[in-house]
Amino acid sequence: MSRSEGGSRGHNIVDRLIKDGQAQRAREAEAALLAENQRKMRRNAKSKIYRRKFEICQARREYNVNENIVECHKCHDFSIWCCSHSKKKRTNPAYYHYRVLMVAGACSGNDGQSARAALGIVWGQDAQSQYSHAIALDSDLDRNTTSQRAEVWAATWGLQFFANIAEADWIIATSSSYVFEGITERLPVWKAKGSKMTSGKLPADIDLFLNLDKAINELESRLPCTIGFWYIPEMYNLASDLAREGAGLEADRSAPEKYHATLTRANLEVERPSLEKGTFLERLGYSPYNKGQVKSSSGKR
C-alpha cells in the first residue's frame, strides 16, 4: 500500500507501532487503513449527489453526456445511465434512479429596455416533455434582466415539473457554470456570511439563488428525493434552443443529430399561462408569471 492511498497520518501511526515493537497492532492498523480506502473507492466509484453536485459513477466518466443520458422506452423521459441500473441489474425502468431535467435561460438585449428573456425546460423526447416560457421583465422589479438571471429562473421554474414525483432522485442539468457554481459552491459561503460576500457586499442575484435554495429545501423536506445539479456542455443541453428561440435569439444546432430528432417547434402556439392556485411555486410565494407561455399544439405540458 502506498502512502498516498492510506494518507500520511495513518501510515505514521503504523510506522510508530512497528518501531515500538508492536507488530500485531501495526498489522491491525494497516488492515483498518486498507478497509477504509476500499470503502472510499467504492463510494467514489458510484454515482452520487454530494453537496448538491451530481457526480457520475467512475465507469461512465469518460463518456459524453449524450452517451450517459438514456431515454425510457415507455415514457420517453430522460434518465442517467450508470452502473447502478445497468441492464443486468435493473428490474425497474432506469428513471427510478436518477431522472434528468435540462434547464436553460436566455435574454436578448441584456440590461436594456428592449430585453426579452425566456427559459427552456426539457425532460424527455416527447413534445409534452419540452417546455418554453417567457419571463416577465416586470417580475424582476428594480433589477435588470440578464441572461444569468434567466438561467437561475429556469432552474427554479423547472422544480415544479417534478414537485409530485418522488420515485427517483432528480438531476438538474445546466450548461450555465454561473448557476452550477452558484448553487453548489458560492451560496453555502454566502449564507454562512449572512448572504453577503467576504467584502460585505450583497452578491449579484442573491435573491434568485435564495429562492432556488428555498424551493429545493421545500421539495426535499416533503418528498423522499434528493436534488442534484450537473454541469453539461451547451451543445448537449436541449433546453438551450428553447430558451434562445423564446428570447428571439438564433438556436444553436451543433448538438448530435439524434438530440434534435423530435425537438421541433413548428406547431407551437402561445397562450397565457393559467396555473392552478396552490401550486408548488405559488406556495413558496414565488410566481414569475409572464406575458405568455409556449406549449405544444396538442395542449399537453
TrEMBL record:
Q: Which Pfam families match?
A: RNase_H
Q: Which domain of life is it from?
A: Eukaryota
The RNase H type-1 domain covers 95-252
What PROSITE patterns does the record tag this protein with?
A: RNASE_H_1
State the Gene3D superfamilies in the record: Ribonuclease H-like superfamily/Ribonuclease H
Q: Which GO terms describe its molecular function?
A: nucleic acid binding; RNA-DNA hybrid ribonuclease activity
State the InterPro entries in the record: RNaseH-like_sf, RNaseH_domain, RNaseH_sf
Q: What is this protein called?
A: RNase H type-1 domain-containing protein
User: Which lineage?
Assistant: Eukaryota, Fungi, Dikarya, Ascomycota, Pezizomycotina
